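Field notebook, page 132. I keep forgetting to write these up properly, so this time I am using the form the group agreed on. The chain and the ligand, zinc ion, are recorded exactly as supplied. Prediction of the bound pose follows.
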Amino acid sequence: MYPPGLTNRLNLYHTTNIQKAKIEFYQYYQSSGINAGVNAYTVVFRKQNGVYVNGVSTMNSLDWVYGEVHINEYRMGTYSNVLRESIIIHEMLHVYGLKDQYYDPYSIMYGYTLYNVTDVTPDANAVINSKY
Ligand SMILES: [Zn+2]
């Protein structure tokens, strides 16, 4: 059951098997340098042997416990609300464990410019269902 008017199929209260997992959002402004072309990036932390880790080879076998979505105001400030929504949903799905893909431009997980996709597309939904 989803709230009236919402088509996004994410249930934010059960995102992992670990209780109290959370996503935090940060803004930064980077207009030059190697990251000036980045809309946003996401860092995901998981717990392995009692220690929070990210970037380890076993990441995909571990539940996430904490995610940070970092939003570049320099780029996002020029976009429509719909495109910003697409990018933020895309980044949140990275926290859930979904990866970029480069073959379907109408997928929420397309790794290049998103085309105002604001739903969790069937491909992404299938991955979520298989993980959780
Ligand atoms: Zn991505």
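OBSERVATIONS:
- The longest strand covers residues 40-48.
- The beta strands are 22-28, 40-48, 51-53, 64-72.
FOLLOW-UP: compare against the apo run.
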